User: What shape does this take?
Amino acid sequence: MGATGATGGALVRSLADRAVPCRALGRDRQRLRARLGAAAGPLVEAHVADAADPASLRAAFSGGRQLFLTMENGPRQVEFELSAIDAALDSGIEHIVKISSPAAEPDSPVAIARGHHAVETRLRAAGVTATVLRPYAFMQNLLLLGPGVAHGGLVVGAMGRAPCNYVDCRDIGEVAATVLTRPGLAGGTYSLTGAETCSFGRLAELLGRLRGRPVRHLDLPPEQLRAQLGAEGGLPGWLADHVVEIQQLAITRPETPTDTVARLLGRAPRGLEAFLTEHIDVFR
Ligand SMILES: NC(=O)c1ccc[n+]([C@@H]2O[C@H](COP(=O)([O-])OP(=O)(O)OC[C@H]3O[C@@H](n4cnc5c(N)ncnc54)[C@H](OP(=O)(O)O)[C@@H]3O)[C@@H](O)[C@H]2O)c1
Assistant: This one.
């Protein structure tokens, strides 16, 4: 699922590189075609399905053995993921790899992580092999800071000096491909991180150095960041809340790197400076 998205798209490319056949799902055929690009072909079969339509999921899963389950964040996320698990069970899927998140706990301070906990719980009780990937924030999220850096020279947040961890979605896709193709790894819960932590202050310094123009870190009280993202920035309320919740979580729970990506992929995770260098034009 989610072949047009960040992790699902990376997984499809990784499976194609390994010559492993798969079915790539999305709600819109044109978007799928555009996202799959050269990966589409005999090994990668594009298939339209919508989690709001369980029959379309069952048709998409028919004949499959393993499911990669991811869903964009949103008010119906839990409902859609549970519906995908039910359809997978109806279709005889034997192994489900779910994208979850850190702090996926029943009393998590992050509402979306509470939803991931509910889906993980259902998945573990479903009677199939369940693998859970819990990545820290995607490096690709940092591109959303691009306009503020390019036009205002500012990195704006509400987590003070908290050390944050970022993981490249391409590494998540490779890990997913690895757990789908090495049976001994199926059934685990994997916390996926990059190799280093970085505060927003250090991020601003790094971006300033890489683009050759200074960048300042502006730390706001949480309620001010929420207002800036929501009413002023046009984000829906639940998403503005989510950004503030994960930033507050970073203050209370240090995002310590793990060696999981290195262990599973046999190489170090992609680095933050390399990622920012690759995308520096977004911040110019
Ligand atoms: N961003 C982070 O830093 C971060 C960190 C930890 C965990 N996570 C978790 O990662 C997950 C999202 O990652 P991602 O890479 O998959 O995100 P994404 O890039 O937002 O992609 C989401 C995918 O969901 C698909 N989708 C949306 N609605 C659908 C529906 N009704 N039926 C079928 N497919 C639907 C979209 O496909 P179409 O729109 O093409 O149909 C898209 O491919 C979330 O669960 C989030 O909580 C994110």
About this structure: The domain at 137-168+194-256+270-284 is CATH 3.90.25.10 (UDP-galactose 4-epimerase; domain 1). The first strand starts at residue 22 and ends at 26. The chain has a mean pLDDT of 97.
